[in-house]
Amino acid sequence: MPIHELKEQIARLPAQPGVYLYFNADGATIYVGKARVLRDRVRSYLKAAGSSPKTDALLADATRLEVIVTDSVVEALALENNLIKQRSPRYNILLRDDKSYPYLQLTTNEAFPRVLVARRVERDGSVYAGPFLPAQLARRTMGLTHRLFGVRSCNEVITGRRGRPCLEYDIKRCIAPCVDTICSAEEYARAVKLTELFLVGRNDELLTQLKGRMLEAAGAERFEEAAHLRDATRTVQALHDRQQKMATPELGHRDVFGVKVGPAGAVVQVFQVRSGRVVERLELGTAEAIVGAQEGDVMAAALQQFYEPRGAPSEIHVPAEPDEREALEHWLSARAGRRVRIITPRRGEKRGLVDLANRNAALAYQTRFSPTTAALDGALETLRRVLALAALPRRIECFDISTIQGSETVASMVVCEDGRMRRGEYRKYRIRWDSGFGIRDSEGPKHRASKSGKSPIPNPQSRQDDFAAMHEVVLRRYRKAIEQGGPFPDLIVIDGGKGQLSAAYAALEELGLANLVAVGIAKKEELLFTRDRDDGLRLAESDPGLLLIERVRDEAHRFAVTFHRRARTMRDLRSDLDRIPHIGPRRRRLLLTTFGSVTGVRRATREELTGVVGAKAADRVLAFFGAEP
Question: Shortest CA distance to 205 belongs to which of 189, 193, 222, 217?
């Protein structure tokens, strides 16, 4: 069972009270439990197989373990309850079914931005606000932006040439940028600016602008617009007053930071406390050692990076005063629209929570920089150095083609992130042979040279062309990634040699992604092929970088072969009669019953076929099998 792969980590757990969390292969929390002694409680799962169907299912799904230490089992009980409500684990008794707290995304990277609900913050040029607690508040706030400012909610490509606006305009939830005679691009941009001020909490500036526009509209006798702006001003003012009231320190809204700095790197733990309860724990960590760093340096960087996509509460408690504390306070206050204080507690309950965050940071440091993790970092560092990568290849995507003599050609794509296979992100493809790569023209096969200009790529219509298949699947994968805004890999692994690698780069160049780095790995010799070398690169058999690539390649091969076997099974359940036009299931059964097999149907004369299915159907069968009617 996968739980036994965690045996070494379980042996290193502390003998303290706390909470433990099991995760599945997709990274979702599947169980949260409490323990008086974490090491003993979690170790009991190693021998729990067969005790109950629920436990067996949990052990089969669990692939990763995290723990949070607490001061007492009572605190562990309270924290367990909060985390169950927050994360809705599959194997816990759930009292509420919402999952993670969402963000609102203002898509300012589009010409005519929208407000969307997002589950995570991306660096894609959009403006993010949140997280929203509870989750329903996000959708209510999004609806408010439609009513107050008229930001669109549709997925249309806006050109301004639509004949008439949709229903959203009629019910006053959109100002109709799709019809330029109703709303110009400049007017819509002003609405987007007001929406951004509202989402990021700059309510004082927003109220000033709304009041100014209301007076301007009233002075120009645009009374309907002025009334709408008046209502918007009142709503924003009411929300502003409520936020000021709810954000008082007395209600216990604060974030508590813990930090552990060591020779291998640094780990920061953040406890989000709302109304006096810990509702979430987040972790930040460095990818490598930071020479000479002090806790104050790490805290300054952590505060900037953590609050860059999210708002800050009124108080932030830290174990060590960060560098430039006053400047950070001014920056956070400006973003939040109210005063934010950074405090280093010295005694009492507040210091106790900071110490607890520090202990969890120390435990996370031991887990993150364990010998196994160090070996992984060594493998990634080897690949970075050998392949001249700009950064460690923490996200690797690998492609493989599976076919037998061109039949039922399929492809697979698997993802390895930080040494773990991300099964939830695997993809499988049926090759369509429609990428336009090396298509036959009227004069014969069209060959397309590889990037090196030495090996032509054969015609894919033979259905046996791995190069064209690789070109198609890479093109489809990263065209979709562009549409979705990522994620993009640090390294692409191609199961094949120079030809398959050239086909993959040709697809990347078509998409404008030639800056991505790909490497091919040839079977048997286990040589690595790169774009810049004509000969293969040979690494030692025990090299950790090569072993990592082989593991990812073997997983892609396993996934492709499994899919190919299923495709062949489905093909074997079909017959040539299924492909004859206008011959339905009843007539197919009649033909097979009468003539015994497809071969018998193929050998039948026109007179014999006519007596079974009629003259027209008989002509279709003969035409399909190439005989004269």
Answer: 193
Instruction: Summarize pLDDT for 242-277 with one digit per residue, the tens.
Output: 444 333 344 467 899 999 887 777 888 888 887 666
Q: Of the candidates 214, 216, 212, 206, which has an alpha carbon nearest to the alpha carbon of residue 237?
A: 206
Structure tokens at 5: 């792969």
Contacts of 281 (CB under 8 A, 6+ apart): 68, 269, 270, 271, 272, 360
Q: What's the pTM value of the predicted model, to 2 decimals?
A: 0.40
CA-angle at 253, arms to 248 and 258, nearest 5°: 135
What token pair was written down for 372? 């196994």
Could you tell me the domains of the chain? Answer: 2-87 (3.40.1440.10), 249-369 (3.30.420.10), 379-565 (3.30.420.340), 576-624 (1.10.150.20)
76-104 pLDDT, tens per residue? 766 776 787 677 787 765 433 333 457 78
Kindly list the distances between the CA atom of residue 223 and the CA atoms of 190, 209, 215, 227, 335, in Å, as whole numbers in the listed order: 19, 17, 10, 6, 33
The tens digit of pLDDT for each residue in 325-384 reads 887 788 788 777 888 899 999 888 888 889 988 998 888 887 777 666 667 777 888 888
**Proportion of the chain above pLDDT 70, given as a percent:** 80
What distance in Å separates the CA atoms of residue 239 and residue 137, rounded to the nearest whole number? 12
Q: What is the pLDDT of residue 384?
A: 86
Ordered alpha helix ranges (H), 324-393: 325-336, 348-368, 371-386
Residue 141: C-alpha distances to residues 75, 148, 172, 449 (Å): 33, 10, 16, 54
Amino acid at 89: P
The three-point CA angle 216-218-219 to 5° equals 65
Say which residues have a Cβ less than 8 Å from residue 322's Cβ, sequence separation at least 6: 296, 299, 300, 303, 328, 342
Q: Which of 183, 174, 192 is nearest to 108 (CA)?
A: 192
With CA atoms as reference, report the closest residue to 114 among 146, 138, 140, 141.
146
Paired with 493 in beta bridges are 398, 519
Whether the link from the prior residue into 131 is cis, omega within 30° of 0, is yes
Give the Cβ contact number of residue 387 at 10 Å: 17
409 vs 114, residue with greater confidence: 114
